[in-house]
Amino acid sequence: MTDLAGAGLPPGGFRGSLWVLLAALVELCLVVVHPFLTPLLWAAIVAYTSWPPYRQARRFCGSRDAVAAFLMTALVSLVLVVPLIWLVMLLTDEVARAYQGFLG
Q: Which is nearest to 95 in space by CA: 59, 103, 58, 40?
């Protein structure tokens, strides 16, 4: 191994520098990944909870994976999108009523 004492580093200083650089790299990785943690957590929850119905759909479809995957994708989309559409419609109605209330 190369003698780093001549490079101005104290004994063990090179290792300490590596640990600092590694800690900085881990911190920067966490900064990049942080915005994706919540969506990843929700995706994991949806995948975990939809696995048993997917297995039943696969049995129902005769082990045709593509058809079962399409059915589950459509079902999960409907379960998530239909209430969201209802909430958006409700919110627009409430905003219109609030606006009318401000106008008098």
A: 103
Cβ 67 vs Cβ 61: under 8 Å: yes
- Would you call 83 exposed, middle or buried from its count of C-beta atoms within 10 A (0-12, 13-18, 19+)? exposed
Residue 15, both tokens: 């290792």
For the segment 51-71, what is each residue's pLDDT rounded down to a tens digit? 999 999 999 988 888 999 999
Q: Is the pLDDT of residue 10 over 90?
A: no
pTM above 0.70, yes or no: no
The answer to whether the CB of 101 falls within 8 A of the CB of 93 is: no
